[in-house]
Amino acid sequence: MEKVRVRFAPSPTGFLHVGNARTALFNWLFARKKKGVFILRVEDTDIERSAAEYEEKLIKDLLWMGLDWDEGPDAGGPLGPYRQSLRLEIYKSHTQRLLEEGKAYYCFCSPEELEREREKAISSGEMPVYSGKCRSIPSNETQQRVTSGEQAAVRLHTPDEGTISYNDLVRGTLTFDLKLIGDPILVRSNGLPSYNYAVVIDDSLMQITHVIRGEDHISNTPRQTLVYQALSLKPPQFAHLSLVMGKDNTRLSKRHGATSVDQFGKQGILSSALFNYMALLGWAPPEGKEVLTRGELTELFELEKVSRHSAIFDYDKLTWVNRQHMKRLSSRERAELAYPFLKEAKLFPDQMTEDHWEWLEKAVEVLTERIDRFSEFPEKVREVFEFFPAAMDESIKKELKAECASRVIQLFSKKISEIEEFDYAKFASLAKEIERETDCRGRDLYHPLRIALTARGSGLDLDKFIPLVEKGARLDFPVPVKNCAQRASEVSNLLE
Ligand code: GLU
C-alpha cells in the first residue's frame, strides 16, 4: 500500500480558528495513525490578504495544539518549496503546457464585463457561469494581444455538457452538472494562480494521497477534478469534513464565544483538552470514551468513521473535558500552567523561588477541584490572599452581632496571639478550648472562627485554608498575605 501523505494547507489571512484547527487535527490524526507523512503547506497567493504575521501565529498555534509536521516551510522536505509564493515557476510551466495543448486559453474579459454577465444571469434566475466567449478568439489574435501586454487570465477549457463525479470518503459519490461549472480560471490576470489550480499542482507534486478538508470546498472539488484530468494527473482521495456549528445550528462564529485557538489558550483551556474535544467534532471513538490523550486518539482514529452530519461546538462540554485533563496533571504541571495567569494578575512575582513553587503546588492541589480552567486561578488565589474585614458583607456583619460570635472571636484572637507556628492542628485544639470556655459549639463556634480568618461567610475548608495562609504569610508576594493571628486581631478590633 502506498504511504499516506496528507497536508494542511492554510491561507495565512487570519488566526487559526476552530474549523481549520479541526481540519489540521484530523489530517494529523490520520497521518500518525497510518504512520504516514503530515505536511504543512502555506497557500499565500492571495497577496492582498496574506501576511507573514499570520503565518507565524498559525505555526505557533498549531504547535501549541500539539500538531507537528514532517515537511513544511520551516521543516523543509524533498518535495518543496512548501509555500505557494515560491512555486510560481512551477505553475507557469504547467500553464504553458495546457495552453500549448489547447486545454486552456487566454481570457481578456474585464472584471466589469464579467460582473455584468453575472448580474444578468442572477436577475434572470440562472446560475452565473462564464459564457466561454474568449474560447473562440483566433490564436494569432490572442498571441498578438498578449504580446502587446493586454491583461489576460487563463481559463481551463471544459466540456459544456455532461457530468463530473468524484468519490468522497465521507459522503460517497458526488456528481456535478458541467453546465453549472463553466471554464474555471487557472491564472488570474495578475499572473498569480487561482486556488483551484495551484492546489491541484501542489497536491499532485507533493504526492498527497488524501485531501481532508472542510465541506466548504466540496463545490471546488469538481473544478479541481477537471484540472487533474487536463494535466493527466491522478487525483487523491477526498474527504470533506462537515462544518462546525454553534448550539443554535448556525455556523460557529464570534457570537457563540471564542473561535480562535489562541483565545482558548488565553482562557486557560489546556491544549491537550482542546485537542481531545476537537477530535470529537464529527468523530466518536468506539465505546463512547470521551476523555482521551493524543496517543489514545491517534490509536483509535478512523477516517472512515467520520460523520457527515454537522458537528456542534459545545463550550460546556469543552470545559468539562478541560477539567478532566486538569485532574490528570501532576501538581507541578498544574502550578506551571497556572503561574502565567497569576503573574499577569500581579499576584505572583516575576521571579519565583522554590518556596513560591511549593506554595503554588499546594494551592493548585486544593483549588483545582473548584475551577474549570487555569484562567480562574487568580480569582481563587485572591480568596486566600485578600482579606478585607472592613468591607465585609452586611449579612456577615449582622452575624457578628450574635452573642457567641463576639465572644468566640475575641477569645480566639487573644489565644492565637500567644501561639507560635500556627497550623491546623493548633487551630483544632484552640477551637476545643474555646468551646469549653464559651459553651458555644457547632455552627455558633465554627462560623465566627471562619469569619475571623477570612472575613467571608464561606470558602475553602479551613484545614486547607490555614496552611496556605500561614505559609503564604512567610513568603514574599506582590500583595503580602496576612497570617491567621493578624486576621483574627483585625476582625476582633472591629467588634470593639
Ligand atoms: N487554502 C485553502 C483554505 O485555507 C486550502 C483548502 C484545501 O485544503 O484545499 O481553505
If classified by CATH, what would the architecture of one domain be? 3-Layer(aba) Sandwich
Low-confidence stretches: none
Major sheet size, sense and barrel closure:
3 strands, antiparallel
Count of DSSP E strands? 11
What is the radius of gyration computed over CA atoms, rounded to a whole number of angstroms?
33 Å
Summary?
By secondary structure, the protein is mainly alpha-helical. The strands form five sheets. Strands 3-4-7 form a three-stranded antiparallel beta sheet. Helix 9 packs across helix 11, helix 12 packs across helix 13 and helix 16 crosses helix 18.
Structure description:
- Helix 16 crosses helix 20.
- Among the domains are: 87-241, Rossmann fold (3-Layer(aba) Sandwich), CATH 3.40.50; 386-495, Arc Repressor Mutant, subunit A (Orthogonal Bundle), CATH 1.10.10.
- It is 46% helix and 9% strand.
- The protein is mostly helical and 496 residues long.
- Glutamic acid is lined by residues 9-11, 43, 199, 213, 217.
How is this fold's topology laid out?
Layout: E1 5-8, H1 18-33, E2 37-40, H2 52-65, H3 88-100, E3 104-107, H4 111-123, H5 139-147, E4 153-156, E5 163-168, E6 172-177, E7 185-187, H6 195-205, E8 210-214, H7 221-230, E9 237-241, E10 244-245, H8 261-266, H9 271-279, H10 294-300, E11 311-312, H11 315-327, H12 331-344, H13 354-367, H14 377-385, H15 394-400, H16 403-416, H17 424-438, H18 443-454, H19 462-473, H20 484-495
Parallel strand pairs: 1-2, 8-9, 10-11
Antiparallel strand pairs: 3-4, 4-7, 5-6
